[in-house]
Amino acid sequence: MKRTLALVLVALFTVSLLGGCNTIRGAGQDIEEGGEAIQRSSS
Question: How many CB atoms lie within 10 A of CB 38?
């Protein structure tokens, strides 16, 4: 029982980390695109 609970907790932790990475990557891409738009408009 303890092993099953530990495996479930590790799996949930891993999934949450991977989801966080994708969210941060998407935010970074959005910020980069915003910066590029500012550069294009100032040229």
Answer: 10
DSSP at 43: -
Per-residue pLDDT of 1-43, as tens digits, reads: 888 888 889 988 888 777 777 777 788 888 888 888 888 887 6
| pTM of the entire predicted model | 0.49
Helix, strand, coil content of the chain in percent (nearest 5): 95, 0, 5
**Cα separation of 16 and 9, whole Å?**
11
Q: How far apart are CA 39 and CA 43, in angstroms?
A: 6
Termini Cα distance of the chain = 64
